Amino acid sequence: MDGVPGVTQFPIPPQGNFTYRFSTGSEYGFYWYHSHFRAYYNDAVRGPLLIHPSPSRRRPFESLARDSTELDAMRQAERAATPLLLTDWYHRLSDDIYDEYFTTGAFPQCVDSLLANGYGRIQCLPESILHAGPGLGLESIIANDPHDPLSMPGMSMDTMSSSSMSSSSMSIDSMSMDSMSMDMSMSMHKRSDHATMMAADSTTSGMNMPSATSTSTSPMASMSGMADMSNLGPKGCSMQMMFKPGFNASSLPPETCSNTTSELFMFNADASQGWVAFHLVNAAAVSRLSVSLDGHSMLVYAADGLYVEPQEVKVLHISIGQRYSVMVRLDQTPGNYYLRFASYPYGDMQQVIEDQAILSYQTNGTSMTNMDIMDDSTLTWMLVNGSAKLTAPELDDQMLAPFDGNAPPSGPSDTTELFAINQTDIVTWVVNGQPFSEPQSPIIYGNVSDGWNAATTLHMPGNSTIDLIMYVANDSMDTMGHPMHLHGHKFWFLGSGEGVFPYQSVTDAPSSMINLRNPPYRDTIDLPPSGWAVIRYVTDNPGTWLFHCHVQWHQVSGMGVVLVEDEERMRSMVGSIEDAANNPNTAALATSLARSTVIPTSSYSAALCAAVLSLLFH
Asked: Where would I find the Plastocyanin-like domain in this sequence (predicted)?
């Protein structure tokens, strides 16, 4: 019931259907569902899924309540929490983007807008920011991977600035970015304690860039290879980095931007209750997102559907596929406050884009939809490129210990797999030298599948401890980081670092590098750029589970493997491929039999005929 075509089921055909049946059992928490066929979840084939926890389950925020009344209010806030599906949107169908990518080789990094629960608007950037580039013209800083574990000592951040973005304008410390001089003295801010620094082009301010509010085209690179990352096109996108031979920027639609005034998503809170909660999921195709709530701190109490030791933050970086549940104390003046979410530029996805939802305080059940937004630069915690201000605490995702104390098995693993992540071609990402390709028949049905013995199918013993050590290969065309997601399991995130993991096994590594005491337990983590990450899990769920990058276009270009788990038990649970839903071979046979007057007489044929008729007339 995992929904991956070629792995756990046949794809659902046009006008077809498939019913997913599963038990929540002891499960709880915030998840999401989405299509796994081509890039169709970009076309809104996705949504949130919430399993309410048992009232008897302990909550991480219980110790923060000052009395039983406040605890009741916090529990009620959790029960009424608003799910927020944060997405990026191309304003074109995914099939068009897919064809353009595989034809030209131009990575689809440039989206048209961001959305919260389907609401949002296009907000073109001031020309001064377009001149400045992804790092906002802040000398030596280009926002990169927020979870890069590497600290770069000696790099200055004394030119960082703040911004506050409304529906039509932005300001830096109450000054308009349209009128500010990029060489002025600015107040100091930060983007992350683990920043990756790059020098900005000092000639940026002299470039002739088009106005962001016009529909003029962007001056894109006209050759393959690295593009000038120090200026942005009208949508806030860096110039394309690579093309297939024979293609260049003129092969792409022109980059334009025009402001819209579409409605923003608004969710309400009763100020008299003292607390509000909401669930966040990054369901984007390419955008790593940063989230902040003007004037408020956010208490993170769950990650990827499980309770964690709480952290109080003002800026929350969310990689694609990750989920967080947060609680907010309503301690400000009642009114409307922006919940800001911005693309955090990293790797070859260098776009500066922000949108907002609105948290509306209510008093005595009175709606405040007509009140002005509390849009004050002193209330904002992050820049328009998703970087955090200096005084704004950020989430430390490696300190998200499970609230229930769930620790990994100690000692050596039963199996260790080493995964080299590599971009071997402009449109090809591989694991251990092989791109994943969707089999015609689902792997879960065993050796009748054309994917059963593929190089990207690995067979794991049941009830065993498995370590997966992954790293970005040195010879990869792009050494950016990746959000890595495992189906069918939670896993322990034991550690990450620079370069290749320098040990043969986890047990050889020092405790300063590997956390076996209280590591995070989740299903999506970041592989750092030019770095390594180690996860551990237990094979207690028979099946065929996809392990893949959650950047949409990396996944469809091969970055994944299938982990077959406890195949003997799996086979006894699954049944025959002939009985599989939406099996095109069975459907073709059904059509043939329906047109035939010949009645099968063998016991096998009779059984097959009965199965076919069931499929036809059910």
From this structure: 1-54, 276-362, 454-568
Task: Indicate whether this model's pTM tops 0.70.
Answer: yes
What length does the chain have?
618
Q: In what order do the strands lie in the sheet with 482-486?
A: 457-460, 560-565, 543-549, 482-486, 524-527
* Single-letter amino acid, residue 64: L
Residue 223's CB: how many other CB atoms inside 10 A? 11
Of 263, 308, 262, 304, which is closest to residue 282 (Cα–Cα)?
304
Q: Counting Cβ atoms within 10 Å, is residue 405 exposed (0-12), middle (13-18) or buried (19+)?
A: exposed
pLDDT at 367 over 70: no
CA 501 to chain centre: 24
Residue by residue, DSSP assigns 80-116 as TPEEEEEEEE-SS-HHHHHHHHHHH-------SEEEE
Distance, in Å, from the CA atom of 514 to the CA atom of 108, rounded to the nearest integer, reads: 35
Q: What are phi and psi of 398, to 5 degrees?
A: -85, 0
- pLDDT for res 366: 56
Q: What does the pLDDT look like over 63-86, one tens digit per residue?
A: 999 999 999 999 999 999 999 999
Say which amino acid occupies 132. A
Q: Do residues 308 and 324 touch, judged by C-beta distance below 8 A?
A: no
Please tell me whether residue 586 adopts helix, strand or coil conformation: helix
Distance CA(444)–CA(545), nearest Å, equals 9
Grouping H, G, I as helix, E, B as strand and the rest as coil, residue 224 is coil
Vertex 158: Cα angle to 153 and 162 (nearest 5): 120
Integer Cα distance of 172 and 180 in angstroms: 8
Average pLDDT, the chain: 82
Q: How many alpha carbons fall within 13 Å on the CB side of residue 115?
A: 19
CA 50, CA 82: separation in Å to the nearest integer?
10
The sign of the dihedral angle between the CA atoms of 444, 553, 122, 395 is positive
Write out the two tokens for 414.
């039963």
- Residues 561, 422 contacting (CB under 8 angstroms): no
